[in-house]
Amino acid sequence: MKNFTYYNPTRIEFGKGKEENIGKYISEYEISKVLIVYGSDRIKKNGLFEKVASSLRNNKITFEELGGVQSNPVLSKVYEGIEIAKKKGIEAVLAIGGGSVLDSVKAIAAGAKYDGDVWDFFTFKTVPTKALKIFDIMTLAATGSEMNNYAVVTNEKTKEKFSFGGPATYPTISIINPELQSTVTKEYLAYSAADIFAHSLDLYFSASYLPEYIAGYIENILNTVIRTTEILLVNSKNYDARGEFAWAATQALNFTTFCGVENNRFDTHFIEHTLSAEYNIAHGAGLSIVVPAWMKWQKNSLPERFERFAEKVFNVKGADAGIESLIKWYTKIGTPVTLKEGNIPEEDIPMLVDKLLIIAKMWRAESLYTKEMITTIFNNAK
Amino acid sequence: MKNFTYYNPTRIEFGKGKEENIGKYISEYEISKVLIVYGSDRIKKNGLFEKVASSLRNNKITFEELGGVQSNPVLSKVYEGIEIAKKKGIEAVLAIGGGSVLDSVKAIAAGAKYDGDVWDFFTFKTVPTKALKIFDIMTLAATGSEMNNYAVVTNEKTKEKFSFGGPATYPTISIINPELQSTVTKEYLAYSAADIFAHSLDLYFSASYLPEYIAGYIENILNTVIRTTEILLVNSKNYDARGEFAWAATQALNFTTFCGVENNRFDTHFIEHTLSAEYNIAHGAGLSIVVPAWMKWQKNSLPERFERFAEKVFNVKGADAGIESLIKWYTKIGTPVTLKEGNIPEEDIPMLVDKLLIIAKMWRAESLYTKEMITTIFNNAK
User: Fewer C-beta neighbours within 10 Å, C or N terminus of chain A?
Assistant: First the structure.
């Protein structure tokens, strides 16, 4: 067990009807003006927005609103939110949506308390120590953003998809009501499953030391995702499966999987972020292409870990059989496993490699990401 | 998945040498005077006390001290601590020890901010909403007290062993350095393992609804405890095993196992607390007697859960085989499994039953704990 600090102050309110208490929850912090941020108009048509607005009004909380956040959320929308927050004296930001909306909200919350350009946080120029309070109502489970302090945003001008995190950007309260997630399409359910897998496997297959307790903890997350995804693809209204899927997503990136681990890396996310910045492919779809390709590159450095994965997650023998089982499972649930299936031109590989090497240099991670490594991984994804 | 709230603000500082930073950690909260509470003089002889004192002095923190806390900690010692805290203007309480010391500290911290008798918290007269800040350095892993807000104390006059918990009694920072736990005797290691098992099994075998994710999560804790206990009984200095054991202990009672669960009960702890209050038997030893006896009483109401346990934890088939495997394992690691082995006179059973029925009435839990049930469980422990 390596030394670690674990601290996670986010309060989770999980279950049916919890969103109706949002006004009460926010008023516990003596907040009287919030900015509601969301994606499409769907939440206005299905009544969720009005339910939230009514709960806020009942608790004497006024609000501004900002809609139109897209998946692979963009910096220009964050700037819009910061401007509203600064002009209107906003005290807290409330996300209604999935990881993209919440990540935008985290950037808005930190940016509203910063005099410079919020992109400075993403390029490591400075770490935000202050932010407006953050609340969220999750309508999609995947990113785990509801119980961590990280946000990923795309600068659409530079086509850079970068992340930041600081002590001030943990959500204060996250509401997870599985019922609100039951209308997610089968396609996006599969992408979400691939995202949770990537959060887990990036760590599982890169850590130079992985406590056996954590290995078992991650395998339990993966087995839960496999079991509940298969139930939900048949019956999208299965509440318990939807709930377990959502809770597994939260656990996969609330840093409980990091405890005692040594030298874990986030290779597949590092590589995928450039795919979704370049082609606007769904993040989960990009990950199901990159993860098996990366595993093929990585397998020889941790043979026992790969054998364990094969046995504990897919009940097969040997590293290769484990990787093949994962590829088959991705195909079964309907998420792409090759560049071609993701509509990414194979002839773009050299350009993608060059782009990743520039980012690696900026992040001072040249020693981790060599030209040979990235090229091999993309070739594995052909 | 049933509705739940999860919130746990305790910061864990885990690993080698972390105790040397205690002064720095406490000074982050602008605290200048603490009460150090501990058990035996062992921490003075082995240098731990001086290491802590020196770290406090280096950070300009003065301290008072209170030693002599025993296992099954008593109310009179809590009163002593409260008196010192009130008289000397103590701002935070620092526990150095195991669950008994930390539980005493929680009661002192809450009692110091309360004008009435601290025992009022234990008898449900009131819930503490304020407390001095709580810090701890754990020298024994078992109770999970380092990451929850509960405390168990024995009123030695009335022989009542009761608990309380409130929003103010989460530790602010808990230090878990496995090296400090490596001198625990084999006997107490076994009792600790039995305590962690009981925290897990009380819930696992009583919940009327247990999400499969949580079932797998608990089984991973139990398998970790089995594996690491067996390593430590052979080699008490195995750091990684000691670390995983400690972290499993924390996870077993930081309420992560409660998420989404319905109607879980704490039967074996309820029954055992009266044993250790009456006979001053080690809490873990009492639990290894009560748990299998309770499982025999409980098994028919949740047959599939018992079959799953047998398979996932002991790799055997059938409920009875699972219970027998647990009894054998307790015997193997050296913790008692019958009243006789625990030096508890069988002829005391009627008296113990009467006592438990009175407590059940006080806790308004008569419907859960009938005379027949408790008598059957004690008879199963003969």
Answer: C
Q: Which residues contact A126 (CB under 8 A, 6 or more apart)?
A: A114, A116, A120
Q: Are residues B257 and B351 in the same domain?
A: yes
Q: What is the per-residue pLDDT for B230? A: 98
Point out which residues pair with A135 in neighbouring strands.
A94, A173
Give the ipTM of the model, two decimals please. Answer: 0.96
Tokens of B21: 């930073």
Cβ contacts from A onto B, under 8 A: 106
Contacts of A222 (CB under 8 A, 6+ apart): A197, A200, A201, A313
> Can you give the CATH number for the domain in which B163 is found?
3.40.50.1970
Which one of B2, B6, B129, B146 would you mutate to disrupt binding with A, by most A Cβ within 10 Å of its Cβ? B6
The Cα–Cα gap between A164 and B148 comes to: 30
- Coil/strand/helix, residue B92: strand
Show the tokens assigned to B175: 């230090």
* Chain A residues with CB-CB distance to B252 below 8 A: none
Q: How far is B234 from chain A (nearest CA, A)?
A: 19
pLDDT beyond 90 at B71? no
Q: Which of B10, B13, B213 sits opposite A244 (nearest CB)?
A: B213
Measured CA angle at B165 (ends B163, B171), to 5 deg? 115
Q: What is the CATH number of the domain that holds A336?
A: 1.20.1090.10
Inter-chain residue contact A11 with B14, CB threshold 8 Å:
no
> Torsion angle of alpha carbons A107, A113, A115, A121, nearest 10°?
-30
State whether B162 and B228 are in the same domain.
no
Half-sphere exposure of A109 (CA within 13 A, CB side): 34
Residue A266 contacts B where some CB pair is shorter than 8 Å: no
B273 touches chain A (CB under 8 A): no
Count of Cβ atoms closer than 10 Å to residue A25 Cβ: 20
- Does A247 reach chain B within 8 Å, measured CB to CB? yes
What residue numbers bound the domain in which B79 lies?
Answer: 11-180
Single residue among B131, B162, B180 that ends a domain in this structure: B180
Q: What share of chain B is helix, strand, coil (3-state, %, to 5)?
A: 55, 15, 35
Please report, for residues A81, B109, B141, B188, B358, the alpha-carbon distance to residue B181 in angstroms, rounded to integers and kept in the order given.
50, 25, 7, 11, 38
Q: How far is CA B184 from CA A1, A93, B121, B188, in A?
A: 19, 49, 31, 6
Domain-embedded: residue B4: no
Q: Is residue A333 part of a domain?
A: yes
Which residue in A has a C-alpha nearest to residue B11's C-alpha? A7
Cβ–Cβ gap A14/B8 under 8 Å = no
User: Residue B365 — very low, low, confident or very high, per pLDDT cuts 50/70/90?
Assistant: confident
Tell me how far CA of residue B334 lies from CA of B105, B233, B284, B289, in angstroms.
30, 10, 11, 12
Its pTM stands at 0.97
- The DSSP letter of residue A302 is S
Residues B36 and B69 occupy one common structural domain = yes
Residue A220 contacts residue A244 (beta carbons within 8 Å): no
Domain boundary among B180, B197, B225: B180
Q: In which residue are the tokens 């079991």 written?
A: A227
Looking at the structure, tell me whether residues B196 and B167 fall in a common domain.
no
- Surface-to-core class of residue B117, CB atoms within 10 Å of its CB (0-12 exposed, 13-18 middle, 19+ buried): middle
**How many domains in chain A?**
2
Facing B216 at nearest CB: one of A2, A10, A224: A224
Indicate left, alpha or beta for B97 from its phi (over 0: left) and psi (-120 to 50: alpha).
left
Kindly state whether residue B2 falls inside one of the protein's structural domains. Answer: no
Residues B83, B87: Cα–Cα separation, whole Å: 6
CA distance B144 to A276: 43
Per-residue pLDDT of B251-294, as tens digits, reads 999 999 999 999 888 999 999 999 988 998 999 999 999 999 99
Cα-based distances in Å from B50 to A194, A224, B20, B36, B44: 51, 48, 10, 12, 7
